[in-house]
Write a structure and sequence with these properties.
With 166 residues, the chain is α+β, with helices and mostly antiparallel strands. It is 17% helix and 46% strand. The longest helix is centred in the middle third of the chain and has 9 residues. The N and C termini lie far apart (38 Å).
Length: 166
């Protein structure tokens, strides 16, 4: 029997967010090069202490930056965030261009960009470990915030899908 995890998981809805971090770069405005990627692997690990985990592909430039920085921001995307999610799932040079125009502001605890959306958090690296072809990073949650309630964006059946409240 052949295992086809990808096909099975297409039937499991996951939330969609953006993870951001930055590294020092004297050539960039403010001396920082911001980067952000779309994720659907964010999970709460513990509420006391507050910890979250995300899984990023080994060898990605974004992962290297996140590990160097030791912190990141998470922005939960609303139902109307599919274009943002698609853009930030593209290669780094396209993401950099988009980050110059997306509505975002540096988080007060990490400086990582937080995008408009129903919720956000800022995290500091607590641990990491290899899981298959990914690295799972565990973050201590430093700060959280919510904005006006909005329907979320989910990933289901291989597509970004606006969810409606039941």
């Amino acid at each position: 029997m052949e295992l086809d995890l990808r096909t099975v998981m297409r039937h499991f809805a996951t939330g969609v967010g953006v993870v951001s971090s930055w590294t020092e770069d004297p050539g960039e405005p403010g001396g920082r090069r911001h980067d952000a990627v779309t994720v659907n692997s964010l999970i709460p690990v513990s509420y006391d202490p507050p910890l979250v985990a995300l899984s990023l592909r080994q060898g990605s430039a974004f992962l290297a930056d996140l590990l160097t920085a030791g912190f990141w921001g998470v922005s939960i995307l609303a139902a109307d965030g599919a274009d943002t999610a698609r853009t930030l799932a593209r290669p780094r040079e396209h993401r950099a261009e988009a980050l110059r125009t997306l509505p975002a502001s540096p988080g007060p605890h990490t400086g990582a960009l937080l995008l408009d959306g129903p919720g956000w958090m800022e995290c500091a690296l607590a641990d990491s470990f290899t899981v298959g072809d990914h690295l799972m990073v565990i973050g201590s949650v430093l700060a959280t915030g919510v904005r006006a309630p909005q329907n979320p964006l989910v990933f289901l059946h291989g597509a970004l899908t606006p969810a409606t409240a039941a």
